[in-house]
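Try this one yourself first.
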């Protein structure tokens, strides 16, 4: 689905500006067994983990005055796998759907 197709659908179905946008739930089986791909984007959590790693590298947490309870054994950097797993995962939307019983916009994630 493209933005243009979505805008056309909204206009054709008179979906109001205050309508909810609901996205179809997708089960993990599509990713685990059917190998669907995702677009991964750096999230707030990703940047928090990067900030923590940076502070460990710079010795920030070793300042006993600022972090009196911090023990050196807690200063374990987040791995590349941790960072990758912290990214938000997106999949392509398939098509918009309009149900007769409400004015909300529904988006299907697969056919």
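Now uncover the answer:
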């Amino acid at each position: 689905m493209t933005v243009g197709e979505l805008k056309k659908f909204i206009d054709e179905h008179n979906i109001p500006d205050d309508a909810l946008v609901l996205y179809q739930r997708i089960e993990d089986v599509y990713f685990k067994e059917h190998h669907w791909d995702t677009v991964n984007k750096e999230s707030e959590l990703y940047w928090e983990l990067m900030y923590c790693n940076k502070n460990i590298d710079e010795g920030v947490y070793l300042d006993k005055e600022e972090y009196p309870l911090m023990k050196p054994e807690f200063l374990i950097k987040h791995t590349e796998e941790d960072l990758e797993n912290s990214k938000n995962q997106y999949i392509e939307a398939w098509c918009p759907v309009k149900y007769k019983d409400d004015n909300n916009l529904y988006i299907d994630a697969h056919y």
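Discussion: The first strand starts at residue 21 and ends at 23. The radius of gyration is 22 Å.
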